[in-house]
Amino acid sequence: MPCRRAFLTAIASTLVFEPLVRARQGSTTPGEVIADLVAGNRILAIENVLDAMGHISVRHPSRPDRFLLARSMPPEVVTAADILELDFGGNPVDGSGRASYLERFIHSEIYKARRDVNAIVHCHTPSLIPFADSDVPLRAMYHMAAFIADGVPVFDIRQAAGMTDLLVRDAKLGKALAASLGNKSVALMRHHGAVVVATSIPNVVGRSVYLDLNARVQIQTAALGGKATYVDPAEAKLRMADPNEYARAWELWKRKVAR
Amino acid sequence: MPCRRAFLTAIASTLVFEPLVRARQGSTTPGEVIADLVAGNRILAIENVLDAMGHISVRHPSRPDRFLLARSMPPEVVTAADILELDFGGNPVDGSGRASYLERFIHSEIYKARRDVNAIVHCHTPSLIPFADSDVPLRAMYHMAAFIADGVPVFDIRQAAGMTDLLVRDAKLGKALAASLGNKSVALMRHHGAVVVATSIPNVVGRSVYLDLNARVQIQTAALGGKATYVDPAEAKLRMADPNEYARAWELWKRKVAR
Amino acid sequence: MPCRRAFLTAIASTLVFEPLVRARQGSTTPGEVIADLVAGNRILAIENVLDAMGHISVRHPSRPDRFLLARSMPPEVVTAADILELDFGGNPVDGSGRASYLERFIHSEIYKARRDVNAIVHCHTPSLIPFADSDVPLRAMYHMAAFIADGVPVFDIRQAAGMTDLLVRDAKLGKALAASLGNKSVALMRHHGAVVVATSIPNVVGRSVYLDLNARVQIQTAALGGKATYVDPAEAKLRMADPNEYARAWELWKRKVAR
Amino acid sequence: MPCRRAFLTAIASTLVFEPLVRARQGSTTPGEVIADLVAGNRILAIENVLDAMGHISVRHPSRPDRFLLARSMPPEVVTAADILELDFGGNPVDGSGRASYLERFIHSEIYKARRDVNAIVHCHTPSLIPFADSDVPLRAMYHMAAFIADGVPVFDIRQAAGMTDLLVRDAKLGKALAASLGNKSVALMRHHGAVVVATSIPNVVGRSVYLDLNARVQIQTAALGGKATYVDPAEAKLRMADPNEYARAWELWKRKVAR
């Protein structure tokens, strides 16, 4: 509780930044950012993007060198009281001693490297692993996944650190992952999963859900045989001119997790 | 509310057409047409034909140059109060300023071109995309999908308009789609989804559900290997002599969404 | 109501046959046969073997030349009051005028031809269509589907009657299907579905559920590639020595539909 | 009831072993071992690893020559009162005459052969059968299934006993299965299913759930085409240094079955 109050006080003192936050996050008050992060956790669980593992974060609305992430727990049962504020060293700033996820460096290093990114999902979604483990590139099959039309890199942790337990356990590994991601929206992680980035919580949730659907579609297309085509990068660019692409889905998903 | 009342008044004044409506729509009163459209929205959502996106419309029961379509919102949560009446320009006639879907021109142009069509579904059902994106034609695998035995065209928006955001944003694109559909029951939309048409709401819902199942079956048949056969167009024609093919399913689905 | 009372009276008058019924059906009273048939309808719906279409019947416990089948309606919502008693002409004997399924001749003709059969399912389960539509034979992948190790014939209605609407609309077509089934447990119906037979309701329900699972397994095995093996007919024969193979599943399923 | 009381008395008399139990099982009291076993049964059912068939056991916390297993019933509905204590002959020790599963020898013989194993699952999970029935080895696709990176043997009952009904009906067959398993974490059983072993109930449940997911991923990877890679055994070894790999999932699953 004290940590949460401290956090709320901290952002309350920066209300002057609110209009910016609103534009960037699709949320209008600090409490709404947290509410959206809690909703994002639950939505990703009920949509089967995350199971007991994986996480979603949001850049701090007024302190761009911090981010919000749940303490180490299953996303499906996260509440507002479970949200921690972390600095770019991956350390919770509330002093309560509660630990966030082991792989929090995925988030800190990407926020450092990508000023345009305000929300990040790390997942093990089964449909993505075939692309992480093989030489078949993940492609944009339809307009709902236009954000990957410019390519999906695959991060191979062995190239950064040799033999590991496959987890992004420190800042060095997080930095290597961020480098692999580059300026793209998604990076696959070989024998592990993926990371998805976007400008807001609704967008990163929408991208994660449709990335899963798109991967299933691509696998089914391969199973069907025949010669496939993919969304043209020029079409994808026009499609992505809409900054609130997943707004309608977001409203529905929020209703579902509010039940 | 006023718009809804206006609409009800409008159709109330045309009660003389009711017997025709009954035969064509499977509904017996104007209120029932709206109730069926609401049910159709929800059924398509629980049957996973639609998610937060996509839409279903019905031709106005007494004014064949108008159609009914929800305002822009997720189909799963549409209620009778959300139904708008639109003219063939794609404009709501109630003056309330509420907007329908961006892609309403899919509906207006098909109703213009096809006098036999009274109900239309536009969807992004994942099972259909492999056929929209490849050179493998969608075929009728069993009697429940006999309506596609005469072929399923694929609409490629690039041939109509070059590079776009893939959406049917205006009447010109809607007209090109309607031309691609021709006299068929389904048109696939490359890198996007599909449009399904029928004589009534129960039929278009039934066709959409079984189109999805049929596509899954065809993909599984390809994965199984071997040499496949398809429903003969002559068998399909005999099968389609039943104008209420999906009546039993419709009654069950309505019970489910009424819970 | 009167028809149901008449039926109950009819079987009440044959209580002398009850021990036989008990052994054969796994049910101990006439009311239990009906209760099991209702449960079977609902179980097949929740297990996705049937949707709004398809049906399950049981041979009359004391009049082997009659059978019990629901009136024409979705299996998921069948109640005891919906069960009709039919003769081998496919006619309800209660005189109430209520109609059973169009394809009731599937049941009447198989009961006529197969004295060992006491329960029949007709279904359109999607996993079975790839085998009905191609030259890949459905094989027993594991012990739960041992009953198909002696082969699964495919009934092609065109060989019996040329071009049709694919439905088994009369006794002649039902007889042709029964001939195709021969002494086997399952016959696939090209471009349509399947028929499954067994000695009792629990067994025909169990077989139908595991036939679906087995078909999915075989398709996945094909997708995996490699060289597959199948349950040896000699192993299957030993396995089928258990006359109550699905008893444990049946108890669980009944609990589920009783909720 | 008397049997349950006898059992509780039996373990109550061995409370001195509790610290050991705690370390090994992740449970802190005898009652918690039983509660975890009940939870494990239900979790495996809701996660679709088990259906009405299959079972999970735990080595007795204080008598390593005994194990706990439900009486013969569907896992989904097991309660604490259904748990039996069995000796290594496969006999319940309570004298109540209640029978456990026919295939209890799977458990007794593996506990005999493997001192490191404290929990065992036997399942027919459909995703595993393609690997049990073909020459394609099951491989570790991602870190969540690192425990199979050292290989998955396939037990062929015909090599032990010629033609059978495929069931592990006696100690001899159980011993042959245990020999096939060797020092591995999983053995597939041709035309039947699999056995999964671990140091604790949470771990064997976690392994069973992710074994299913991993098998699906491998099948999808094969369907996708291309050249696949697998978790390196050295990476897997580092990954498995965590003895509580599935702790977070276990907490979530327990919450779900407690509802």
Task: Draw up the topology in text.
The structure is a homotetramer of 259-residue chains.
Chain A: H1 2-12, H2 18-25, H3 30-46, E1 55-59, E2 66-70, E3 83-87, H4 105-113, E4 119-123, H5 129-132, E5 154-155, H6 157-161, H7 171-181, E6 186-189, E7 193-198, H8 201-224, H9 233-239, H10 247-258
Parallel strand pairs in A: 5-6
Antiparallel strand pairs in A: 1-2, 1-4, 2-3, 4-7, 6-7
Helix pairs in contact in A: 3-8, 3-10, 4-7
Figure out the total of helices of chain A: 10
Parts with pLDDT < 50 across at least 5 consecutive residues of chain A: 1-25
Backbone structural class of chain A: alpha+beta
Radius of gyration of chain A, rounded?
Answer: 18 Å
**Biggest contact:** A-B, 33 and 33 residues
Q: Biggest β-sheet of chain A, characterized? A: 7 strands, mixed
Oligomeric description of these chains: homotetramer
Measure the end-to-end span of chain A. Answer: 24 Å
Task: Assign a percent range to the helix content of chain A.
Answer: 40-55%
N-to-C SSE string of chain A, H for helix and E for strand: HHHEEEHEHEHHEEHHH
Mean pLDDT level of chain A: 90
